[in-house]
C-alpha cells in the first residue's frame, strides 16, 4: 500500500487567510510587498505526548518542513492546557491517553479554551472505543503512531485547513464507529444544538433555506442566521462544503 493510501481525507476546505492591513494612511511601507505576495504565516503546532522520544521525533519531522512552527511541548494534561492558553496553536498533536484518568477530556477542554485549534490525535491505540471517544470529543484527525513523516505532515495541514483525516484502517470502519451495531446513533457533530441539527439534516438533503423554513415553520431570517451559525461551528465556508461534510458523515441520505 502506498503512503498516499494510508490516510484518508473525509472532506475538504480551503483555508482562508486575511491579508495584513496597511497602516492608517492606506500606504505600505517602502519596500514592503503587497499582501498578495507576502508569505503566509507558518502553522503553529503544539506537541503533547508523555514520551519525550515521540515529541522529539515529531518535532524533527516538522522542523524540516517549511510553513510549520512548533511553539511548545507538553507531557501532561495540565501542561497541555497551560501551553494552549499561552500560545493558542493552530494545531494540537496529542496522544490523549498520555495522562490518566483525564484521557480524552483533554480534547474537549482544549476546544472550549481555543475553538479554532484543530486537534490531531497521534496515538498507538487503534481501538474503536478510543477512536470514537476522540472524534466525539472534537478531534479532526486520528493517526496511528506507525504513520510516516509525510502522513504526519499531511495530517497537520489537513486539520489546520478544517478537514478531517484518519488512518485508512479507521476510515474503512468509520461508519461503524459513528453508528455502532447496538443501533444507538451518535450524531457526528455534537457541537450543534438540536435545532441546528434539524437545519443541517435538511441542508444535506439539498433543501433550500426557503424550503427548510417552511418545513420547520420558522422565518426565513431565522433559518439564514441558523445556517451561518452552523457553517461557523463546522468550519466550512459555504453550503457546498457543508453538504459534502454532512453527507460524508451519513446525513442527507434518509
Summarize the entry for a quick read.
This protein is α/β, with parallel strands linked by helices.
Lay out the secondary structure.
Blueprint: E1 7-9, E2 43-48, H1 52-63, E3 68-74, H2 77-87, E4 91-94, H3 105-113, E5 118-123, H4 128-137, E6 141-144, H5 149-160, E7 165-167, H6 168-171, H7 174-178, H8 194-204, H9 209-216, H10 220-234, H11 239-248
Parallel strand pairs: 2-3, 2-4, 4-5, 5-6, 6-7
Antiparallel strand pairs: 1-7
Helix pairs in contact: 2-3, 8-10, 8-11, 9-10
Total helices: the number is 11
**Helix-strand category:** alpha/beta
Q: What's the Cα radius of gyration?
A: 20 Å
**Describe the biggest sheet?**
7 strands, mixed
**Contiguous uncertain segments of 5+ residues:** 1-5, 11-22, 180-184
Helix content: 40-55%
Output the helix-strand order.
EEHEHEHEHEHEHHHHHH
The average pLDDT score comes to: 81
First and last CA, distance: 34 Å
Total number of beta strands: 7
| Major β-sheet strand ordering | 1-7-6-5-4-2-3
Anisotropy-based shape? globular
Strand percent estimate: 5-15%
Amino acid at each position: 500500500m502506498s503512503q498516499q493510501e494510508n490516510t484518508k481525507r473525509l472532506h475538504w476546505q480551503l483555508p482562508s487567510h486575511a491579508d495584513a492591513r496597511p497602516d492608517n494612511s492606506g500606504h505600505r511601507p517602502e519596500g514592503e510587498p503587497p499582501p498578495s505576495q507576502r508569505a503566509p504565516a507558518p502553522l503553529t503546532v503544539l506537541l503533547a505526548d508523555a514520551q519525550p522520544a515521540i515529541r522529539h521525533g515529531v518535532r524533527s519531522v516538522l522542523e524540516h518542513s517549511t510553513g510549520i512552527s512548533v511553539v511548545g511541548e507538553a507531557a501532561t494534561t495540565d501542561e497541555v492546557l497551560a501551553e494552549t492558553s499561552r500560545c493558542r496553536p493552530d494545531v494540537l498533536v496529542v496522544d490523549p491517553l498520555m495522562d490518566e484518568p483525564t484521557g480524552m477530556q483533554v480534547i474537549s477542554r482544549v476546544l472550549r479554551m481555543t475553538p479554532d485549534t484543530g486537534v490531531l490525535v497521534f496515538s498507538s491505540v487503534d481501538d474503536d472505543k478510543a477512536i470514537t471517544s476522540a472524534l466525539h470529543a472534537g478531534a479532526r484527525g486520528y493517526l496511528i503512531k506507525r504513520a510516516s513523516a509525510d502522513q504526519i505532515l499531511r495530517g497537520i495541514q489537513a486539520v489546520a485547513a478544517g478537514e478531517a483525516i484518519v488512518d485508512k484502517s479507521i476510515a474503512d470502519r468509520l461508519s461503524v464507529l459513528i453508528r455502532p451495531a447496538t443501533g444507538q446513533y451518535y450524531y457526528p457533530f455534537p457541537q450543534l444544538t438540536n435545532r441546528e441539527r434539524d437545519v443541517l439534516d435538511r441542508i444535506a438533503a439539498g433543501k433550500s433555506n426557503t424550503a427548510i423554513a417552511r418545513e420547520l415553520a420558522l422565518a426565513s431570517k431565522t433559518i439564514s442566521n441558523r445556517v451561518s451559525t452552523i457553517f461557523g461551528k463546522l468550519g466550512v465556508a459555504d453550503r457546498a462544503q457543508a453538504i459534502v461534510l454532512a453527507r460524508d458523515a451519513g446525513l442527507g441520505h434518509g
